[in-house]
Amino acid sequence: MISSKIRLVILLTGCLSFCFTAYAQPSAKDGVLDLRQNDLDGEVELNGEWQFYWQQFVNPAAIPAKSDVRVQFPFLWNGYLLNGHKLPSFGYASYVLTIVMPKHTAPLRMSVPDVYCAYRLYLNGKLIASNGNATQGPDGFRAHWQYRAVDLPANTDTLRLVLHVSNFVHYRGGVKSPLALGPKAPMELARQRSEAIDLLLTGCLFMGGLFFLGLYIFGNRDKAVLMFSLYAIVYSYRIIGTDNYVLHSLFPDLNWYVAVRLEYMSLFAGIGIFGLYCRYLYPADSNKKVIAAITIVCFVFTGISLFFPAYYFSQLVNPFLVVMVFCLVYVPYLYIKAWRLKRPGSIYSLASSLALMGVFAISLLHYWNIVPQLQLLSFIGYISFFFLQSLVLSHRVSFVLTRARHEAEQGLVAKSEFLSTMSHEIRTPLNSVIGIGHLLLENDPRPDQQAQLQTMIFSANNLLGIVNDILDYNKIEAGMVTFENIPTDLPAIARNIVNSLATIAQDKAIDLRLNIDSELDFMVNADPTRIAQVLTNLVHNAIKFTNTGEVLVTLGLKKRSETELTVRFGVRDTGIGISLKNQALIFDRFTQADSSTSRSFGGTGLGLAISKRLLELQDSQLHLESEEGKGAYFYFDQIFAPGGQSLMVAAPAGQAPANPAAFSGLSILLVEDNILNVMVVQTFLKRRGAVIDVAGNGQEALAMLDTSKHRLILMDLHMPVMDGYEAARRIRAKGITIPIIALTANLPQDIQDEVHAAGIDDIVVKPFLPDELYRKVLHYVS
Fold first, then answer.
1. How many whole angstroms separate alpha carbon 608 and alpha carbon 480?
2. Residues near 113 by Cβ (< 8 Å), separated by ≥ 6?
3. d(C-alpha 304, C-alpha 309), whole Å
């Protein structure tokens, strides 16, 4: 039995033998290529022994004497040992070949590649192709590289080719690539396919480079993205400007000296830029000195290509091959290292390096004339490489964006926590300021003192409003706003707002009026807090920006059905008005119509932005009609479901107990660690006859609580030793059902879940007005 390894070796040997046999082509001998046994159904390269005439342009019309020199075509003469002397790069020569043709009927074509660096090709004494101007000296010489294809005459039994080649600019002289002969249609199709591949690949690289350049300019300025974009743009020239020289076919008059510089510069600069790309892609893994050395060499060679004659920079290719081979080894090593360290996208980098090694290997072997161009394989390799590198950068950009989003989310959380903390810290002293102000107002102050106390309370309330606006907008941005849907008395809300702001309007000698549609005599399902917030913002703004005249608040029923009704809320003033160009601006956050308005009237500029967003979240829009100097009209329409209860008579707002002894004998346990707040609450309630016991923290409250005595607990939530949540949980764990009201500087929607879970019955938000505290206490002890 033959082992599997032996069978594999035999199979591979057979395949290789078949390949070499299948692609074996006839070769010229002694200046003659005999094709009589070839049916010319495929392309034949005119390789083999050609006659070579150094420093001679033989007469193409006459049969020259046979040369003593035979060369293996394609042949570069520089460095060739002739008569004991090495031939220089500069010079001229003739190549002669006779082709014995078979009988053929199909049209034939001959392809002529570029040579170093100008030529004339004669067939049977007739000039059929040329590039540049081939001369016997530098005078009049003109280099040019361009693919040529020539249709051959039919029914010709012998072809005598004479090729005049001259070079006075390049370090190479002679012919690098073979001429080819074959059927016209397949050769024409092959050339078109080759040009199409080059154009497609060039377009892909160039557009991809522009895309990543735009991503860098308008993105996060990642230098790896910039280097890759420059590399793709630079290297796209090598696809269209070398080998097949498609660019030279598109622009036949392209200056050779410009084109050859671009060809070499794109090679040298491309490798240097790619080295920098690897450096910025994996900065922690790449060796800075190695990358610096590669970059310096590449850009020095690029500078030489830009400023020195072609003879000098064209000699740099061979030493530069050392750099390329080193890169072929170093780049996979770097990517393997990055992959082992689990860098973002490193698996794609590693796969792309394998594709790049394949492309460079084909390029080097083709450069040394070991293998043909293998354009399709190179195309697949290039596309694979750039696609995988695009995945690397896409993954990198995605990783950066994900990290930035995570950091932004953490920042939002930190901002929310900071604002919540600051809210608590600001509200706590404000509670003392506002509370003590109200206490002093109840002590019959002198008229001048009363005015000063009212100013102090007004200023404190303004500060509270600013804090509330900032917190509200933060919650709207974070998507944490929730809406209630409970039976709501819209006329009562409007009356309360107008009554609460009437004093401010009176101080400015402004009429504040309310007009409610008589048909609006029923409850609706709505969020009363948010409606009041929006309407308060609009009315307060109208008063603030009106110096004379009036502010009119209107509620009108626009449409009504059994399932829904539409109400229009409007606020019209006779104030300063808003110009047309500033009407959209005022709805932006932290913005007023102009800086002078901000200086004159103050404010954060958040009120309208908050109102607009709250309405949008409820599928409504805030509209504005205004003319500068003639007032403004803000209005919005909102759709509600009927609340099921008629309002025959508007219910008055809840009021505090008028009886000074309403809480007489009522024992309340106050749990509060802030001395000023203790003083404020004690004074408020003692004036109504309540008996107050004070605990400094939750642990003291548990020890002091007497169920036979205390009928209500007022509990601060944030205290040392034991906070209000834990104290409430322990009270409820003992089966005690005494009502607990939380006194907190936190907003209710922030803590409602925790409050409910702890068994706390209600919340009073600091700073609170005396009436609000009275109503809550009265509700739970009645």
1. 19
2. 147, 176, 177, 178, 179
3. 8
Tokens of 694: 């004070």
Tell me 69's DSSP state: -
Q: Find the helix or strand (DSSP H, E) in which 632 lies.
A: strand 632-646
Compute how many other C-beta atoms are within 10 angstroms of the C-beta atom of residue 389.
26
Residue 740: partners with Cβ closer than 8 Å, 6 or more residues away: 712, 713, 715, 728, 731, 759, 760, 761
- Burial environment of residue 70 by CB neighbours within 10 A (0 to 12, 13 to 18, 19 or more): middle
pTM to 2 decimal places: 0.59
Rounded Cα distance between 229 and 241, Å, is 19
Distance, CA of 374 to CA of 370 (rounded, Å): 11
Strand partners, 405: none
Across the range 229-252, mean pLDDT stands at 90
DSSP E strand stretches across 55-179? 70-73, 81-82, 85-86, 91-100, 108-112, 118-123, 126-131, 148-151, 158-167
Q: Which of 337, 335, 336, 317 is nearest to 277 (CA)?
A: 335
Higher-confidence residue of 168 and 435: namely 168
Average pLDDT of span 696-709: 92
33/29 Cα distance (integer angstroms): 6
Query: What type of residue is 432?
Result: S
DSSP sequence for 541-585: HHHHT-SSSEEEEEEEEEEE-SS-EEEEEEEEE-SS---GGGTTG
Mean pLDDT of the chain: 83
DSSP lists the bridge partners of residue 148 as 112
Q: 665 to each of 680, 686, 709, 733, how far by Cα in Å?
A: 19, 10, 10, 28
pLDDT band per the 50, 70, 90 thresholds, residue 774: confident
Bridge partners, 623 (sequence order): 635
- Sign (positive/negative) of CA torsion 202, 207, 208, 209? positive
Q: Nearest 5°: phi and psi at 226?
A: -65, -45
Looking at the predicted structure, is the pLDDT value of residue 745 above 90?
Answer: no
For residue 297, give every residue at least 6 positions away whose Cβ sits within 8 Å of its Cβ, in sequence order, or none.
Answer: 272, 320, 323
Structure tokens at 308: 């020195």
Label residue 637 exposed, middle or buried (CB < 10 Å: 0-12, 13-18, 19+).
Answer: middle
Q: Is residue 17 very low, low, confident or very high in pLDDT (cuts 50, 70, 90)?
A: very low
Cβ–Cβ < 8 Å for 563, 643:
no
DSSP line for 285-297: TS-HHHHHHHHHH
Residues in the chain: 782
Q: Tell me the C-alpha distance between 51 and 38, whole Å.
A: 22
Token look-up 């009120």 returns: 607
Q: Which two three-digit tokens encode residue 506?
A: 């009176």
Q: Which of 73-82, 183-192, 329-338, 361-370 has the lowest mean pLDDT?
A: 361-370
Name the strand (E) or helix (H) holding 248: helix 246-250
How remote is the C-alpha of 380 from its chain's centroid? 29
Distance CA 547, CA 575 (A): 6
Number of H helices, E strands in the chain: 20, 25
Which domains are present in the chain? 23-188 (2.60.120.260), 193-404 (1.20.1070), 490-646 (3.30.565.10), 667-781 (3.40.50.2300)
* Statement: residue 466 has pLDDT above 70: no
For residue range 409-424, list pLDDT tens digits in order.
Answer: 777 677 767 766 766 6
pLDDT bracket for residue 426 (50, 70, 90): confident
pLDDT in tens, 613-656: 888 888 899 998 988 888 899 999 999 988 766 554 333 434 44
